[in-house]
Design a protein that fits this description.
The chain has helices at residues 23-36, 42-46, 49-52, 56-83, 93-108, 114-127, 131-146, 157-163, 168-178, 180-190, 203-211, 237-240, 249-258, 281-289, 302-312, 362-382, 402-410, 421-429, 435-443; strands at residues 2-3, 151-152, 196-200, 215-218, 225-230, 244-246, 271-274, 294-299, 319-323, 335-341, 383-393, 415-418, 451-453, 463-470. The chain is an alpha/beta fold. The chain folds into four domains: 2-152, NusB-like (N-utilizing Substance Protein B Homolog, Chain A), CATH 1.10.940.10; 157-190, no CATH class; 196-246, 2-Layer Sandwich (Alpha-Beta Plaits), CATH 3.30.70; 249-470, Vaccinia Virus protein VP39 (Rossmann fold, 3-Layer(aba) Sandwich).
């Protein structure tokens, strides 16, 4: 059973009065409006000029409000609809978002007085041009604040979906594919604050963080990964000068699995394709593990391509950044290794990107899968006989993972799947994986030898990874 309301809360909201709106709530309201209209992503907006101009406390509150509302939106809407005089009536977007903001604060933020949460939500509705609806906002939020704690069962997939604010059809798929216990772990992980994981690039980086008061602990899988426990990493010289990088441990692992240099001493990797390279974290690891190789890093979207160029510039001519569609690459049997970390639904990253859950659909999964197959075909064409392709997604869905690989293998007779167990042994032998990490990864292998990381079972985003080899003929 999951308790939603703050147990023991005795605060009541007095009759609403004119309220000033804090900068944090104004910023959160604007960002949620932009996300609702599909104008941008929450993480981009939370790093924008408007939020950066706020004081540190307001910036933290704005972030908590935006991500909290997006994480709990499905459940918040369910509760709010039940309290409306006309539950099936359609609310104006501004009114609905003002109510979501108020409801999230009342239910989840103990340190914020209910009066402030309710009054400022009413004022947000008024200032957005909905003065007549402000009374309804006030009444609904006051009812919500006075209600006893809400309890939801997590026994069935449908109940779990509402308790943890996920689309029911998605949770049902996870329960069918992985079991209800794993689905419960995924959902709960998605509702928690994601861990901030870093990669130690320089041996001095870890000591610098300690001297700066940043508390870290070892990662779960990789010897170069650390989890930030406390402290502002982004203000340290080690971070600003690139001696440590922020990168999810699962994302780091994908690049480590792809970096095959020195496995066959007489067949060193000399050329690499990173088919969908932005933002460049995996490209940097490929360059680190293959210092003699030249890398072609492709990206189709101009803003991300420009960011990629800037990030990889210090590598000089070792890396060629190309604005290109990875599915239409003309390279044929020209490269030794390719990483196809393809665009996907992102269902393995809902904790980090909470709004994605509100955009998921079966139609979108099919559309993504078609493009993923095209990129994997192009990556296989690009490698020489004996060359390898690592295919990965941050999706938990079979349409984007096993089914994509199976479809491409069925139409490519000169390609075969390479089980990843030997690669795990190799990384352990090189000191790249921890002993416990290697053991856990072996448990995460599918019967075919692909790797599946499930959020909640690992303190990482969700990933699917497999390796293919292009054979002669």
């Amino acid at each position: 059973m999951t308790a939603l309301r703050k147990a023991g809360s005795t605060k009541t909201a007095p009759k609403n009065r004119t309220a000033e709106i804090s900068p944090a709530r104004k910023a959160a309201f604007s960002i949620l409006m932009a996300v609702e209209h599909g104008q941008s992503h929450s993480d981009d907006l939370l790093r924008g000029k408007a939020v950066n101009a706020l004081s540190a406390p307001d910036r933290n509150l704005a972030t908590a409000l935006v991500l909290g509302v997006l994480r709990w939106q499905i459940q918040l809407d369910h509760l709010l609809q039940a309290l409306l005089t006309r539950p099936c009536g359609k609310l104006d977007c501004e009114v609905l978002i003002a109510m979501r903001l108020g409801a999230f604060q009342v239910l989840h933020l103990d340190r914020i007085p209910e009066r402030a949460a309710i009054d400022e939500s009413v004022e947000l509705a008024k200032q957005a041009g909905h003065r007549f609806a402000s009374g309804m906002v006030n009444a609904v939020l006051r009812k919500l604040a006075a209600a006893p704690p809400f309890h939801y069962s997590e026994e069935s997939a449908v109940e779990l979906a509402l308790a943890q604010s996920h689309p029911a059809w998605v949770v049902e798929r996870w329960a069918n594919s992985f079991g209800i216990e794993a689905a419960r772990s995924i959902c709960r992980y998605d509702q928690s604050q994601p861990t901030q994981t870093i990669r130690i690039v320089s041996p001095d980086g870890e000591d610098e963080l300690a001297q700066a008061g940043i508390r870290i602990e070892p990662g779960e899988l990789l010897t170069a990964a650390r989890i930030v426990v406390s402290g502002d990493l982004t203000s340290t010289a080690a971070f600003l000068e690139g001696r440590v990088r922020v990168q999810d441990e699962g994302s780091q692992l994908v690049a480590e699995l792809a970096g095959w240099d020195n496995e066959k001493p007489n067949q060193k990797v000399k050329s690499i394709l990173d088919a969908c390279a932005a933002p460049g974290g995996k490209t940097l690891i490929l360059a680190e593990r293959n210092p003699a190789a030249r890398i072609l890093a492709c990206e189709i979207r101009v803003p991300r391509f420009e960011q990629l160029q800037t990030r990889l510039a210090y590598l000089g001519d070792r890396v060629q950044c190309r604005l290109a569609d990875a599915a239409a690459l003309a390279e044929d049997a020209a490269l030794d290794l390719a990483l196809a970390d393809v665009p996907c639904s992102g269902t393995g990253t809902l904790g980090r990107n909470p709004e994605l859950r509100h955009r998921l659909s079966l139609v979108a999964l099919s559309r993504q899968a078609e493009r993923q197959r095209a990129i994997l075909r192009a990556a296989l064409r690009s490698v020489r006989p004996g060359g390898r392709v690592v295919y990965s997604t941050c999706s938990l869905e079979p349409e984007e993972n096993e089914q994509v690989v199976a479809a491409v293998l069925a139409e490519t007779p000169n390609a075969r799947l390479l089980p990843l167990d030997s690669r795990i042994d190799d990384l352990l032998g090189k000191g790249i994986l921890t002993v416990s990490g290697a053991e856990r990864l072996r448990d995460a292998l599918t019967p075919e030898g692909c790797l599946r990381l499930l959020p909640g079972l690992y303190r990482t985003d969700g990933f699917f990874v497999c390796a293919l080899e292009r054979e002669a003929g």
